[in-house]
Amino acid sequence: MANNVCGVVQLVVDKLGFEKSRSFKGVSASTVENLSQDLIVSLRLVASAEAKHFTNDDQFRHFRDFLFYFSKDLDDYIELVKSGLEHVNPINILESKLETFISKITDSLTLVRQSPLLDQGSQSRPEEEETFLFGPPEKEIRELLLQESIEFPVISFHGMGGMGKTTLAGALYNDAGVRRSFQAFAWVNCARKEFYAITVVKSILGQLLPRQKKVVAGLSFLDSTRMLYRLQQKVKCLIVICDVRTRENWRNMRVAFPIRDETRTQILITTRIEEVAADCRQNGKLYGMRQLDADRSNRLFNKIAGGTTNLIPHCVDKLRKEILSRCGGSPLAITIAAGYWNSITNKDDTTFDPNKAFDEINLHQDETADPERSLRSMLQLCYSNLPLRLKACFLYLAQLTRSDRSEIRVDEIYLRWIAEGLVVISEDESANTTKTDITENYLLELARRNMVRLNGEELVKSCQIHPLVRDFCVDQGEKEKLFEVVAGRGFATAVIPKSLASGLTIEMNAYCEDRAAVPAVVPHGGGNSRCSSLYFMDTVEPVVDYAAADWRRVEVFEVKEFMKRVLRVVEFDGVDFRLWKLPKGMGNLVFLRYLSFRRCHLEEIPSSLGNLSELRILDLRVRGHCRVTIPDLLCKFAKIERLYFPAKYRSGADHGRLNMRGLTEVEILVNFDTKVCYTDHLEDMKKLQRFDVVVEDDHKALDKVVDFVDDVVSTTSFSLDVRNFTCYSDERISVLRKMLVCESLRKLQLEGHIKKFPDNVVGIMLANVEEIVLDGSELKVDPMQRLGKLSKLKSLDMRNDAFIGKEMVCHGSDFPNLKSFKLVNFHYLEKWTVEPEAMPKVSTMWIEKCSKLSSTPAGRFEFAHNINNELNIVC
User: Rounded distance, CA 135 to CA 129, Å?
Assistant: First the structure.
């Protein structure tokens, strides 16, 4: 119920934001603004109550119900005003009704704010949280970062795992004030057993120069080091290097940082070893992260923990103290313990057994005072308390967490869980429930227990787990025979011993610096008798001259070793198939349900894969520069549910395009290209939920695609990449008009001359679109007039003279939810005015090659103080 209420309230708030500029007749703009603010406060109160499990409180339920029906009535009223139907409902009646609305919401808010139901202290600002958690040093370090000159180039944090080093670095890295003080940013993690300085240096350089990643990938260690060194002397950079394990690691990459010379770079380093931190601190500062004392431990626990109030107070206090005593002052352990507390107390007093809780705690008790041992004991306690369906899901996160990526994309998590058969739609689920819905609920449940951290606001795009949590997952996964992780080293043979694990992950590390000149035999089954899942992971960009080197390509694994198993999952992640061969017998793995080549270098799909009739998921999203040839085999995958095409591909079919007739089970279809696939075959896909399509210079194909999406009720996410589309005829303008009012459209990339947005549009233009790219549109009328009114728009990218006028204006109510704005290669724009209240949430702005634009808007975008055409970086 709470989610539904929040959705309705947010919709009304968005609509009020629309109408603020023109206001309501007879009602001041300030009155409407106050009403909007009251609704926002109400929204936060409902969300907070839901998060703290106070939804059974009678007073809260009354307020929530009132808010829901109130918002529905207000929504009707706004639509009536917008329609101008005074003859149906005279305006004086509408005015009195609005005043009644304002009075009601004000009275209800006053009443609920007086209730002890909500902990107002829980809404403290992030700065307040950081202050009590980290103490005075956090404020001191922030002041150092805000200085114009760099006084201490390197600031090091040391302490045992789980003490908050990365949290403190992240708080400073994401601080709005700090980000305004720097021009470029990079965050790298060194927490892998095999450390390669070239990997770290290239990762930093690629983040500082995001538009030059391809150039960076081909550089030698010496060239990349020299380039990074010089860049830091010109551009003010903030670089975070997490989990430096040894002095040698730092000394190997130190040459890339101008620590002793003049620099504009600030480096934050975290490490578990004090000696390493001391070695890193040349011309810098050193801070030790200590265990939290009893007071701060209690405050952190109380801030995070919610739970019901139905428990006996004496029992609550005793249990809290017992749990906290087992955390050893570790912020991470306390955070996880608070999640455990929420899970065991989110029950009524008839099902909660305090004695059982004490028994569980004592069962996993660690007698030592070592905070890391205390953390592991707490993790074991929380893991044992997980529902059975979540245990395997939690452990599998370890396989997706890699040292070169601190975040895990949620779509990768969902794919892995579904592929492993961990997601099942039970009879209790509603008819419309999908596997994606269930995986989302699983991840949210793990987040509520504080075992993962979600990244994103309205839409969760990624999550993170702490390195120590990842270590626990690996150990527990191997202990339960769920999977086994085998680390290779370059081309050296990785011997896989006989194992009972159902899954094997082979970390290939093919591009290590001391690789052999000639490859050796790659890992194979080695007698494994239960393996149902194989994962091959390679994480490092190559530095290989293939023309000069004499490479002997070998197969990644021998299929015959797995012919006696029921192998269901095979994933190649980041594997370069210029070095390895795909096994010849892949088509014999007839039980395979999931096959992925994500981030691999692969240029051709073998036709033998057509034998995989049981395939449910096929992920062909290889590296972006690869153009893949796909044989005509897709029509054989009658059970396929998720199909991800590469960004660039061509048909290997004798008759032209790829045949996709009869794929009736498809729910997700990504990178569908109308030049390579038949659009007529889409009509079989009645279950399609997500549809990402590319259309190039073909308005008839675009018309068919839009008609198909409008007809398929299940499609909730539609992304459209329209290339080389010029509106020089009435027929094309008609198709453009139809496309712009498609309700399922979420992302739009439109390349080509359109001159102006169509008139006489039936419906709301781009009503649900969140991301827009306009490329070479050559609009003559200021596009801000229309685009600024899109309440759901979060990202706007305009490039290559998308607008050919001289002036753009963003009014006070424009772009209420926009977060990213890019302006690239505008030859005619001279003036851009942004009123103070416009774009209130923008945090990223890129301005490049706008030669006639005299300056960025003053005041509102004080962070956009530098327009650097070479680096493409403003904030």
Answer: 10
Q: Give the tokens for residue 477.
A: 């996964």
In 3D space, the residue among 718, 762, 708 whose CA is nearest the CA of residue 744 turns out to be: 718
Report CA Rg, the chain: 29
Residue reference for tokens 């339960």: 480
Tokens of 660: 């996709």
Mean pLDDT of 160-176: 80
| The token pair that represents 264 in the structure block | 């504009």
Percentages helix, strand, coil for the chain, rounded to the nearest 5? 40, 15, 45
The b/e string for 497-524 (b: 16+ C-beta within 10 A; e otherwise) is eebebbbbbbbbbbbbeebeeebeebbb
How far, in Å, CA of 677 to CA of 698, rounded?
A: 13
Q: What is the pTM of this model?
A: 0.71
DSSP symbols for 712-731: -TT--EEEEEEES----SHH
Residues 138-165: b if buried by 16+ CB within 10 A, e if exposed: beebbebbeeeebebbbbbbbbbbbbbb
The DSSP bridge pattern shows strands 453-455 and 462-464 to be antiparallel
Torsion, CA 476, CA 479, CA 485, CA 487, rounded to 10: 110
pLDDT value at residue 772: 96
Mean pLDDT is lowest, of 316-325, 533-542, 554-563, 693-702, for 554-563
pLDDT tens, position by position, 398-416: 878 765 556 788 888 888 8
pLDDT tens by residue, 658-690: 999 999 999 999 999 999 999 999 999 998 989
